[in-house]
Amino acid sequence: MITYRTQIAIIGSGPSGLLLGQLLNRAGIDNIIIDRVSKSYILSRVRAGVLEGSSVAMLDKAGVGTRIHKDGLLHGGFELAFSGRSERIDMQGLTGQSVMVYGQTEVTSDLMDAREADGALSIYDAEGAQPHDFDGHSPHVTFKKDSVSHRIDCDFIAGCDGYHGPCRKAIPTGALHTFEKHYPFGWLGILAEVPPVSHELIYANHSNGFALCSMRSAKRSRYYIQCTADDRVENWSDQLFWDELRRRLPEHFADAMVIGPSFEKSIALLRSFVAEPMRFGTMFLVGDAAHIVPPTGAKGLNLAVSDVHYLYEALLEHYNGKSPAGIDHYSQKALARVWKAVRFSWWFTTCMHRFPNTDAFDQRIQEAELDYLSKSTAAKTSVAENYVGLPY
Ligand code: FAD
Ligand code: DHB
After folding, report:
1. Is 276 in the pocket of ligand 1 (CB under 6 A)?
2. Residue 374 has pLDDT above 90, yes or no
3. Distance in angstroms (rounded) separating the CA atoms of residues 365 and 60
4. I need a surface site. Which of 103, 166, 283, 305 has the fewest CB within 10 A?
5. So what's the pLDDT on residue 83?
6. What is the 3-state secondary structure of 241-259?
7. Is 273:178 a contact under the CB 8 Å cutoff?
8. How far apart are CA 212 and CA 205, in angstroms?
9. SS3 for 155?
10. CB-based burial of residue 232 (10 Å sphere; 0-12 exposed, 13-18 middle, 19+ buried)?
11. How far apart are CA 116 and CA 266, in angstroms?
C-alpha cells in the first residue's frame, strides 16, 4: 500500500477539481488530485463554451487567465430567434457586463499546465476511488493504480467527481435530499472548422425544435439542434445536420451559414438535478457532483466555478482564520446560487424547446413569453443579468 498525507484530497480532475487545486496551491494549502481516467481522455471531452465574467475572474485569481484574455471571444450580446425573426439581448447595454466564449477543454488544459508547472501531485487512471470516514476523525481516500493499493489521509475531501462519481453516492441516502427533472429531448452537437454564422450566439426556437449557433474561435463553430431523447449520432450525416440547422434559423442566418465536415458529433441528454446538502462532515460536493443543469444558458461550468469560490473561501477561513464558519455555511451559500441557475436554465429550456405533446394552450403561452421578452426591457434585463451570471 502506498500512502500519502495531504490537507485536501480532491477526487476529480475536471474544471472544479483543477480550479480548486490551483487556488489552494497559490494559498499554500497542500492538495492531491486523483482522476479515474487519463489526462488525454479528459482533454478530448468537448463540453461547455461560455464563461461568465465571475468565472473569468476566478481563473485570473488562479493565475491561468493569460490565454483566456488573449484567445477568448468577449461577447456583449446574443440573438434570440423565433417566429422567423431575431431579437438581440444586449447584455452589455442592459447589465454593463459581458461573457467570454472560451472552451471548457481549453480551461482544463490551462489549469493542468499550471498545476504541472507548480509540481503539484495529480494521479490519473486511479481505479475504484472511494472516500472514507468523512463523518469521523480520519477522512481518507483509497484507490488502486496499476493494481497497487493507495491511501490518501487528509483533513477534507473535495468531491469534484462529476454526476457519476463515488462521493455523492457514499453519503448515506437518508442524509441527502435530491431534486430531479428530465426533459424529453437531447441536444445533438457538432464541431466544424468553419467560420461562425454570426459574431454572436444565436438561440433559436423553431417548430422543428431548438437550435443553437455557438463557436470556439473565428474559424471554428459549435452548433446544436434539439433531437429526440433516443436519437443516435449515426442517424445524422453532416448534410442532414446542416439542412436541419439551417431550417431552424431565420432566413438571413440560414443564407449566411458556411458548412463543412464536422470533426465531432455527440448527443447530450437534458436534465436538472440538485443534491442537498453539499457538505457531509469533512466531505464537500462541488460542481456536477452536486448538481446538473440543462445546457441552455451555459450554466453548468459556471456553477462549478462558483462552488469552488465558496469552498475555497471556506477553506481559507478554516486554515488562516481558524474559524469553522465558512465550512459550516458552504452548502447554504453555494445552493442559494445553484438554485437560481437551476431556475434560469429550466426557464430558458422551457422557453426555447418544442416539447412533445405540447397542447395549443402551452404553445400560445410560449409564443406570448417570447413576444413579451422581445418587447419588454425589464424582461430582457432579467434574461441578461442571469445569462452574464448572478453575483457571488
Ligand atoms: P466534470 O467535468 O464531470 O469532472 C469530474 C471529473 O471526475 C472527471 O474528470 C471524471 O473523470 C472524474 N471522476 C469521475 N468518477 C471518478 C472516480 N470514480 N474516481 C476519480 N475521478 C472520477 N455545460 C455547459 O455550460 N454548456 C455545455 O455545452 C455543456 N455541455 C456538456 C456536455 C456533456 C456531455 C457533459 C457531460 C456536460 C456538459 N456541460 C455543459 C456541463 C459542464 O461541462 C459541467 O458542468 C462541468 O464539466 C462540471 O465540471 P466538474 O469539474 O464539476 O465535473
Ligand atoms: C455552448 C453551450 C451552451 O450550452 C450554451 O448555452 C452556449 C454555448 C457551447 O458549447 O458553445
Report:
1. no
2. yes
3. 42
4. 166
5. 92
6. HHHHHHHCCCHHHHHHCCC
7. yes
8. 9
9. coil
10. exposed
11. 30
Which ligand 1 atom sits nearest the alpha carbon of residue 304? 52
319 is catalytic: no
Q: Given 150, 206, 299, 353, which residue is catalytic?
A: 299
pTM over 0.90: yes
Across 131-157, b (16+ Cβ under 10 Å) vs e yields bbebeeeebbbbbebeeeebebebbbb
Is the CB–ligand 1 distance for residue 12 below 6 Å? yes
**Peptide bond between residue 277 and the one before it cis (omega within 30 degrees of 0):** yes
What backbone phi and psi angles, to 5 degrees, belong to 37? -115, 180
> Which residue has the CA at smallest separation from atom 7 of ligand 2?
298
Locate cell 479515474: which residue? Answer: 36
Question: Distances in Å between the alpha carbon of 342 and those of 6, 198, 322, 338, 383?
Answer: 34, 28, 33, 6, 14
Which among 105, 13, 117, 11 has a CA at the least distance from the CA of 63? 117
Q: What's the gap in Å between 40 CA and the centre of ligand 1?
A: 15
The CA 104 to ligand 1 mean position distance, Å, reads 10
Read off the pLDDT band of 357 (50, 70, 90): confident
CB 87 within 8 A of CB 374: yes
